TrEMBL record:
PANTHER family: ABC TRANSPORTER ATP-BINDING PROTEIN ALBC-RELATED. Pfam families: ABC_tran. The keyword Transport applies. GO terms for molecular function: ATP binding; ATP hydrolysis activity. This is ABC-2 type transport system ATP-binding protein. InterPro entries: AAA+_ATPase, ABC_transporter-like_ATP-bd, ABC_Transporter_VariousFunc, P-loop_NTPase. PROSITE patterns: ABC_TRANSPORTER_2 (PS50893). Gene3D superfamilies: P-loop containing nucleotide triphosphate hydrolases. Residues 3-232 form the ABC transporter domain. It comes from the Bacteria. It comes from Pilibacter termitis. Keywords: ATP-binding, Nucleotide-binding, Transport.
Length: 235
């Protein structure tokens, strides 16, 4: 599967974020999306997830037979936002059960809702409290869990690891590595060590375009300097 962005344009008022930007993502890779504050990373994810519309250009999914579809269903997209949007009035276990029930036909897990929550480090005693009272990190874990078990072929992870404790972060990194076998994984981060550790490709959102970092620079000692040099240039 491929996710193809072609001549994408998007502005908010006077501020143009993408200008005829094109890039094609492929299954089997973890892409790190880097860019300065306000470059448009979250906006890009929202456009792919169909929460926002483009001004022009197209975003399409190309299946393994080469059939291109710009009218894809947004359930194809697993979007883990920095600020989660979970139903406050449900407990953790109620919500996970609800999502599992709704997605019976596409679950990747044979575990129960409670076992899945435990796998993500949410203790049984915490599974029965309202999501409203979960910490930021716990909410992120729940969001990541429901995204993973619904087997989306495309994952958009917006700064996913910033609120996880070291144990959870380690486990989630392992999961992200597993996800890429059957999915396109794109995550945005400002943590360069994390990008180096997890990513197969680095995409820089810079000057309203996507720029791919040369492969050999990803593991080079000058990685940080390279990124800073590129991102501090331009307009
Ligand atoms: N709904 C909106 N209406 C108007 N402007 C918006 C809207 N959403 C985002 N913006 C603006 O678009 C720009 C890009 O925002 P976005 O959140 O996509 O950046 P980002 O690259 O994710 O930034 P950061 O790295 O700081 O999280 C910012 O200047 C922001 O203020």
């Amino acid at each position: 599967m491929k996710l193809k962005l072609q001549n994408v344009n998007k502005s908010f008022d006077e501020k143009q974020l993408f200008r005829d930007a094109s890039f094609t993502f492929e299954t089997g890779k973890i892409y790190g999306l880097l860019g300065r504050n306000g470059a448009g990373k979250t906006t890009l994810f929202n456009c792919i997830a169909q929460n926002l519309t483009l001004d022009s250009g197209s975003i399409s999914i190309i299946d393994d037979k080469g059939v291109e579809n710009a009218m894809y269903d947004n359930t194809e997209i697993g979007f883990v936002m920095t600020d989660t949007n979970l139903p406050d009035f449900m407990t953790g276990i109620e919500f996970v059960r609800f999502v599992m029930d709704l997605n019976k036909h596409r679950l990747t897990t044979t575990l129960s809702a409670s076992e899945n929550l435990s796998k993500y480090g949410i203790k049984e005693s915490d599974q029965h409290i309202l999501l409203r009272d979960y910490s930021h990190g716990m909410k992120n874990k729940v969001q990541m869990l429901v995204t993973e078990i619904t087997n989306a072929p495309i994952y958009l992870l917006d700064e996913p690891l910033t609120s996880f404790d070291p144990v959870a972060a380690y486990e989630v990194k392992e999961r992200i590595r597993e996800l890429k076998n059957n999915a396109i994984v794109i995550f945005s981060t400002h943590i360069l060590e994390l990008a180096q550790e997890l990513c197969d490709e680095i995409i820089l959102l810079h000057d309203k375009h996507f720029e791919i970092l040369e492969k050999e620079k990803l593991q080079s000692e000058d990685f940080e300097k390279e990124i800073v040099k590129i991102l501090s240039g331009g307009e």
